[in-house]
Design goal:
Largest sheet of chain A: none
Distance between the termini of chain B: 73 Å
CATH topology of chain B: Glycerol-3-phosphate (1)-acyltransferase
InterPro entries (chain B): Plipid/glycerol_acylTrfase
Strand content of chain A: under 5%
Oligomer: heterodimer
Strand content of chain B: 5-15%
CATH class of chain B: Alpha Beta
Pfam family, one (chain B): Acyltransferase
Number of helices of chain B: 10
Pathway (chain B): Lipid metabolism
Distance between the termini of chain A: 22 Å
Radius of gyration of chain A: 20 Å
Largest sheet of chain B: 7 strands, mixed
Shape of chain A: globular
Radius of gyration of chain B: 18 Å
Protein name (chain B): 1-acyl-sn-glycerol-3-phosphate acyltransferase
Strand order of the largest sheet of chain B: 1-7-6-2-5-3-4
Number of domains of chain B: 1
Order of helices and strands of chain B: HHEEHHEHHEHEHEHEH
Helix content of chain B: 40-55%
Number of strands of chain B: 7
Number of strands of chain A: 0
Structural class of chain A: mainly alpha
GO molecular function (chain B): 1-acylglycerol-3-phosphate O-acyltransferase activity
Shape of chain B: globular
Structural class of chain B: alpha/beta
Chain lengths: 327, 245
């Protein structure tokens, strides 16, 4: 169980710290864009793009952080909505949406795995991954349409792994009474990871990381992000996991590196999908960002990776009531 | 093995534009809304207008095909849609006047999600748009519901068919299914805001026509439209012969 002081949503100093830091970053970046606009240094098009991005963040951040502050059920509900939104974009981009039976099973799987998280039923939660994969494997056989079987089944299983089973780990974390600082840390650390990679890449430059997959990413940016994110996550993690077996410098650094590497891997995973399809963005929902997936790609792999690291050392919700709905 | 990733035709369009796009492809939500709407309309037509369908066996089970009918009422597209079942019903698009059905976003959302309509703009539908509709009809195995008169008849008499139908099917083996709707004008006249329950409504479906030999040019389109018009007129109920003394 994650240590947590008694009290409301802001009882843990890390929670308060992350919220204040986020508000500060938003305010400072807004002022910086304002200054850039006033000074006339940036082209009008670039200014518009910056404002659009900033305004998107102003809408997005309360939607991301708000449910975590409100409570367990709100967090799991928000993760469910995020999963469905991600799946929708993926299905439309890959063409999987035309397979309505498979699509319906993926959606049911997403709802079921998030229900298992809400129920706090770990056995069902982990069982749903192989069970849903099996169901996806067999459900289109009765259609007697073997042409395209491998493609549609593979697309559906990848979708359930990434947006169903994978993302649901983020919601499951809320079963621990001390989940708030950890979930907030993950949400903000993956965003910081992206910003750090972008900034280090621009400042240092140098050879490209994987030019065919993502032409703008550099090796220096990637390593810089690992350095920055690892440091931050390890330091904040030390405050969150004080007194637990995870509060050991080696494991804290490992956790930080995991967040950064899994975050970048998720980003590159989505880039690979987009390159393969020949599209730039997965959607148009978030002005200045693209689709929901373009924003949350880094979270896809971080959620299960960090979940199982913490589960191994500390455990989630070990003293919280289990199977609260199914009894 | 067949690896063929085909993104949605309307991928990357902002929501409002997507509603009006000829490439709009419904997902699970769209299919569910449309199916619920279709069932509700079918139930209403049966209960309030005693809706009957004759010649349903003439309808192909799957697309591509084009249903054409006389046009006197907003009930027409709803009735033709209600007559479809299975895969054809899921892929049925009514071609509707853009100005009327897609004028504002709320109306466009209803037209797109419930009726699954595609907009045709009077006088400004470009050749490219017709080509898109022609290509999608075959590639996506769609079923189009089309009223080739171009507008609702105010008198009840059927107007000559426009050549647009020919542009969609000339030179292909895609079936054109002629239909005649009887009673729609009384059940929901063009000048009334709402339908009038209690007036009967009947649909006759004739055997499909095919135009593989028709040339894809103006003369060819007109020959297709004329043949379809004759087939639709042939389904109209004949006036009762005068009583023999």
């Amino acid at each position: 169980m994650i240590p947590h002081p008694e009290g409301g949503a802001f009882a843990h100093p890390v929670t308060t710290g992350i919220i204040l830091a986020t508000l500060a970053v938003l305010a400072v970046s807004g002022l910086a864009i304002l200054w850039l606009s006033r000074s006339g240094r940036a082209k009008p098009e670039f200014r518009r793009e910056l404002w659009l991005r900033w305004a998107s963040w102003c809408v997005l951040l309360p939607l991301m952080l708000g449910p975590v502050l409100i409570g367990r059920a709100a967090t799991i509900a928000a993760v469910t909505i995020l999963s469905l939104a991600c799946y929708r974009e993926y299905a439309r981009a890959t063409g999987l949406f035309r397979e309505r039976l498979l699509s319906a099973v993926v959606v049911l799987g997403i709802l079921a795995v998030n229900f298992a998280a809400l129920d706090h039923w770990y056995g069902f939660f982990v069982a749903l991954w192989p069970l849903t994969a099996c169901l996806l494997g067999v459900c289109t056989i009765p259609l007697d349409r073997p042409a395209g079987y491998i493609q549609r089944t593979a697309l559906a299983i990848l979708a359930f792994m990434l947006f169903g089973a994978g993302l649901a780990h983020l919601g499951y974390m809320a079963n621990d009474p001390g989940y708030r600082p950890l979930v907030l840390l993950l949400l903000t650390a993956v965003a910081l990871n992206d910003v750090a990679a972008f900034t280090c890449g621009k400042l240092i430059g140098g050879p490209k990381l994987l030019p065919a997959t993502s032409p703008n990413k550099t090796i220096s940016g990637s390593l810089g992000a690992v350095l920055v994110t690892t440091t931050l996550v390890a330091l904040v993690g030390a405050a969150i996991f004080r007194g637990t077996p995870l509060a050991n410098p080696v494991w804290l650094v490992a956790m930080g590196a995991l967040v950064s590497v899994a975050g970048q891997a998720g980003d590159l995973l989505l880039s690979s999908i987009k390159r393969d399809l020949g599209i730039k963005d997965m959607g148009t929902v978030l002005p200045g960002h693209g689709g929901v997936l373009d924003r949350f790609n880094s979270l896809l792999l971080v959620a299960p990776a960090v979940f199982h690291l913490v589960q191994y050392f500390v455990g989630f919700g070990t003293t919280a009531p289990i199977r609260t709905i199914t009894g | 093995m067949d690896w063929n990733l085909r993104p949605a035709r309307d991928l990357g369009l902002p929501p409002a534009e997507r509603l009006r796009s000829l490439g709009r492809e419904p997902g699970l939500v769209g299919l569910a809304v449309n199916a619920a709407w279709r069932r509700a309309v079918r139930g209403y037509l049966r209960a309030a207008h005693g809706f009957r369908v004759e010649g349903a066996e003439n309808l192909p089970r799957e697309g591509p095909f084009v249903m054409v009918a006389n046009h006197a009422s907003h009930l027409d597209a709803l009735a033709l849609l209600a007559a479809l079942r299975g895969p054809a019903a899921r892929r049925a698009h009514a071609l509707a006047a853009g100005e009327l059905f897609f004028g504002n976003t709320a109306r466009a959302a209803l037209s797109a999600y419930a009726i699954n309509a595609l907009p045709v703009w009077r006088g400004r539908s470009r050749r490219g748009e017709l080509d898109t509709m022609r290509a999608r009809l075959a590639e996506d195995a769609l079923a189009y519901i089309l009223f080739p008169e171009g507008t609702r008849s105010r008198s009840g008499a059927m107007a000559p068919f426009q050549p647009g139908l020919g542009m969609l099917v000339a030179g292909t083996g895609i079936p054109v299914v002629p239909c005649w709707l009887e009673g729609a004008r009384d059940a929901w006249p063009a000048e009334a805001r709402l339908p009038r329950p209690g007036r009967p409504l009947a649909l006759s479906i004739g055997p499909p026509l095919r135009f593989p030999e028709a040339r894809n040019d103006r003369a060819g389109w007109q020959s297709v439209s004329a043949a379809a018009e004759a087939a639709v007129r042939g389904l109209a109920p004949q006036p009762a012969p005068p009583d023999q003394p």
